[in-house]
Amino acid sequence: METEWTILTEIAQDDTGRFVEVPFTVPDGIAQIRIRIAVVPNEGGPCTIDVGLRDPVRVRGWSGSAKYDLVVGPDEATPGYAKGDILPGQWAVLLGVYVVGRAGANVTAEIRLVQSARQWLKGDLHVHTVHSDGVYTLAELDRIARGLQLDFIGLTDHNTISQNYSYSRETPVTYIPAMEFTTYRGHANLFGIADPCDDFRVQSADDVASILTEAKRRGSRVSINHPFDEGGPSCRWQWGYDHAFDWLEVWNGPWRASNQQSLELWHSMLRAGRRVTGVGGSDTHREHPYVRHGNPTTHVYAKSRTVGHILSAIHEGCVTMSCCPDGPRLELRAPDATMGGTSRRRSFDIVLTAAEPGDQIVLLSEMGEVKRYTVLQSGDFAAQGEHEAKRFLRAELWRYFPQANGQLMAALTNPVFMHEAAT
Ligand SMILES: [Zn+2]
Question: What local confidence, expressed as pLDDT, does residue 423 receive?
Answer without folding.
Answer: 62
